[in-house]
Design goal:
- The protein is elongated.
- It has eleven helices and eleven strands.
- A hairpin with a 6-residue loop joins strand 1 and strand 2.
- The longest helix has 18 residues.
- By secondary structure, it is of the alpha+beta class.
- The strands form three sheets. Strands 3, 4, 8, 9, 10 and 11 form a six-stranded mixed beta sheet that branches.
Length: about 260
């Protein structure tokens, strides 16, 4: 009985995720192409409802999986411990937008000094790939920095330490960042701003600080709003180590999401 019950439960969850509609016994029988009578399926529905796995939105409707059922389903289906998942930014973007999921990738992206700009002998502007850092003008410092164009921030800091340019090291430590954050599907996260208790979580997620607070794993309502799931996972982004966070409603198709982002 348990094997049939589990089979039917998987079937109703998959059909519900696909259709987003309550599922009746006849519809489930047709979608699964199984040789079980509709009456038998209804008996299983009754058992699963008594166990808190299925529910009815009203007395004459079909069944839908409860939050408990969906949480258990995703715990068993998502390979969030796998750190060999390969993706790229474009596939990740498409996967998020297609499946109605918010996603963010945190990657190490060493900054390279592109140019040193002298602004009217008042400021030196260090132009990196994704940011600019401003320093008070100093002729000797300008000559020194121009010799470092093309180097990564970490290399610049090492050389600056060697020549005791402590103020430069301090400025780079304060303002430079080798971390790049890319996120997509922000509209699917916007509901957090509608509730005061979740506004802090919204900014924690989009800033990437969520990676500092949570370890890799799958998360539900003790961490995020009820009815949603979130996953933090190590991934490979263009063969480089990175981290992925995604979050969405429990009824989203996360299996399809993983298929869409895999490269």
């Amino acid at each position: 009985m348990n094997r049939k019950k589990d089979l039917l439960l998987d079937g109703i969850i998959q059909e519900y995720i696909r259709s987003q509609e309550p599922i009746g016994s006849e519809a489930l029988k047709m979608s699964m192409c199984i040789k079980i009578s509709s009456a038998t399926i209804r008996n299983y529905f009754k058992v699963l409802s008594e166990e808190g796995i299925l529910m009815q939105t009203h007395i004459s409707s079909g069944r839908i999986p409860t939050h408990l059922a969906l949480k258990n389903y995703w715990r068993s289906k998502l390979d969030y411990q796998n750190s060999t998942l390969h993706t790229d930014i474009e596939k990740f973007k498409v996967g998020c937008e297609k499946n109605g999921i918010f996603g963010i990738i945190k990657e190490k992206s060493p900054q390279i000094l592109q140019e040193v700009i002298n602004h009217q002998d008042r400021f030196l502007i260090l132009d990196f790939q994704n940011q600019a850092i401003t320093l008070p003008y100093n002729h000797s410092l300008e000559r020194f920095l121009r010799e470092l164009v093309g180097l990564h921030t970490e290399d610049i800091k090492k050389i600056a330490n060697q020549v005791c340019a402590i103020s430069l090291v301090k400025k780079l430590n304060e303002e430079s960042s080798d971390i790049k954050i890319s996120y997509f599907g922000i509209e699917f996260l916007g509901f957090l701003l509608q509730h005061k208790q979740f506004q802090k979580l919204f900014f924690e997620i989009v800033s990437g600080k969520i990676f500092e607070r949570l370890d890799k794993g799958i998360y539900f309502e003790t961490t995020i709003p009820k009815g949603n799931l979130a996953v933090i996972q190590d991934i490979k982004l263009q063969k480089k180590d990175a981290k992925m966070f995604f979050m969405g409603d429990l009824s989203r198709n996360y299996i399809e999401f993983y298929e869409d982002i895999a490269s």
